[in-house]
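Record format v2
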Amino acid sequence: MQLDAKVPGGSLTAKWDRHRFELKLVNPANKRKFEIIVVGTGLAGGSASASLAELGYDVKTFCIQDSPRRAHSIAAQGGINAAKNYQNDGDSIWRLFYDTIKGGDFRAREANVYRLAQLSTDIIDHCVAQGIPFARDYGGLLANRSFGGAQVSRTFYARGQTGQQLLLGAYGALMRQVAAGKVQMLPRREMVDLVLIDGHARGIVVRNLITGAFESHAADAVIVATGGYGNVFYLSTNAESANVGACFRAYKQGALYANPCFTQIHPTCIPHTGERQSKLTLMSESLRNDGRVWVPRNPGDIRDPQDIPEADRFYFLEEKYPSFGNLVPRDVASRNAKDQCDAGRGVGLTRCAVYLDFTDAIQRDGRELIAKKYGNLFDMYERITDESPYTTPMTIYPASHYTMGGLWVDYNLMSNIPGLFVLGEANFSDHGANRLGASALMQGLADGYFVIPYTIGGYFAGTDLPRFSDDHAAFKDATLAADAKTKKLMSIQGRRTVDNIARQLGRIMWEYCGMTRNTQGLAKAAKLIQELRAEFWENVRVPGSDKDFNKSLEKAGRLADTLDFAEIMVHDALGRAESCGCHFREEFQTSEGEAQRDDANFCHVALWEYNGEGRPPLFHKEPLVFENVELTQRSYK
Amino acid sequence: MKKLAPKINVTLKVWRQKNPDDPGHFEMIPASNISTHMSFLELLDTVNEQLTQEGKDPIAFDNDCREGICGMCGAVINGRAHGPEKATTLCQLHMRKFGDGETIAIEPFRARAFKIIKDLAVDRSPFDQIIQAGGYISVNTGGAPDANAIPIPQDVAEKSMDAAACIGCGACVAACPSASAMLFVSGKISQLALLPQGKPEAAKRALSMVRAMDACGFGNCSNHRECEASCPKELSIVNIARLNREFFKASFFSAEK
């Protein structure tokens, strides 16, 4: 397969400028003749819908929830990075670029990451103009804080609700375009297939989640911005409806899946407590600015935390990584927490958690200041656990949070299927093997506000797109296939509920393809997934009717895709015989237990192509070329 | 040393309604062996798995983030929107707040403007329509000045953030005797009216959002403060006072119609 990432020539700093000039333009009067479908209304999909409509394109936007404002970007807490250098502490576009490339363990594309750092400053300007109430200093200027993996303060925030505020900004802009008649908003719809005509993405089939009816929608381009697949682990910080479905449908139509094994496990989440638990709640990484992570030094020490004297406490991150301390990147913090628990030093109900302790911070800064910074997070923690972090150390444990892998895209954010663009977490492009804190919001908005409005114009201006309507045979075929799948799911009427099987898949993935992986475990996981898939198609029980509001049926359809996808993820993890970032293969580690990359053999993006039912996917790769940074062993010591 | 959570038995008295046209009724469903660590939605999940195994239709309810921020969940529990806990969405309400043997009444958010879709799921799209009427600053992407060009006093930014914390769940409407959406509308009006960036459109925004609210069939504020008491994000009715001021200013002293 011929893959062209379409990275422009010239120096790194000039590539985006040059590319914007070289992209052909669509005449303003002609823009209304192009119809664009956007699937998903998070930061990427919401901002793209609004910006494209502002330019004059006709946009149809779909979301799975009852309103575009519910998309899970809303739950991002800590903040958004931008290389503004307002704090005069040595930040620059180059430093943000370098931190992001290094944080991703040198598995991202240089040109994309540099562009992201460049656009970061425009995002903050735009969001302030939209009326987003960012935190400010007494003088009225914007406040910043530092975040894991960075030694400068470049994170902008709105209390612990930054994602909510940014999303509502994009949502407001989207609603403005709905009112202007430029966006048709279709909520409570789930994309069930991507429709290709003559090899181009020309529309989608969706299921109306209230009536159960299938609907066909034709367009000149399709943008998928449906987030990540963190729910493959069942328990995650993702929303319930977050799923791999739209991306997986695109994969089955020929789009390449890139680095599916790169999944981020976030270090600071409220630990798992019971079998019926449906969710692991994130506690913002910003807490690591003031909280100290520790476990009892002696395995099996079951005293209450306040009874453990200083000498018997092991501040493992501070001791192992003196220069970054508690602020090491997420992958490093997570693995170290797991190591401590595996060594018998875990705390809490299940002995599978570590402490995050604010006693020193409260003594130093006073309860009032700490409450101002983290009050809403502390309240949330107390609601869930019934313990107050003001008086008892929090217990935290890593949980599935974000997925760096996603559909492959070129520099224009277009997949290998012409006319299919992929934005935000759904694509693979900017975070390599590990994402730094406060960079997801940055990427989602950069893609939607500032990249796609240019690159989609280049596609339209350079492509001959004959008119098709939604009565083309390709839509009928896709609808029939989707209906057949639904009918099949309804007909099984076995003994196990969808959640019951989803939980089992989650346990398999967490155990064998989670924070650490090894050859035997992955081989075992592949076998277990195949067995579970067979079990699902023979023994799942979906109640109710397919022509009704039916959550069980929705979940069953998603689980069917997730079961297929999980296998590709395991395949990828097995194929990448190195450790990098979040992907920690136990066989490949340094003498100090850190991830050992193999740049000679694995400095590439691993790509998987669908190869028919029951056959292993085909492997391709995009080599990563680094012209501007030197590949080093990541060190946070 | 943490202890295992105790288990309780409860009975759900839950509203069942097949579709918008069905008159609906209460159904009694027992739920046993419920860990008090569970959230209320996990209780509903558990009951739904049980109903599925028994060949019955599970209880339909909306939810998504399960961490109290998306605003998609919500029901009236024992007569209170989102249940008995202050500043807590339904997904963040935990079973430790209920007693063993208790009967728990569960109803959808009821209001003329919120059509019931099925069981506990309601249609809150009128909130989107109100925002479409002006809940934004009309700025196109590109061309914004530097983010620090206009300083905003910290207390103003904080008040704006207080108002912006609304999650659009609709509890305020469900709790209000007049099913008014004033707290919801006032959150957005206040957030934007307080900021210098929002001032140019303040008059137009106030008039048009209030008009949209009326058109959707929401009632007017009658100062019961039930909205404030039920709001999971603790929006203050100070915002309603600010909305009224903005509305009167716009009506009497601006050229906007």
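Chain B touches chain A through 82 residues (CB under 8 Å).
Residues 238-253 of chain B form the longest helix (16 residues).
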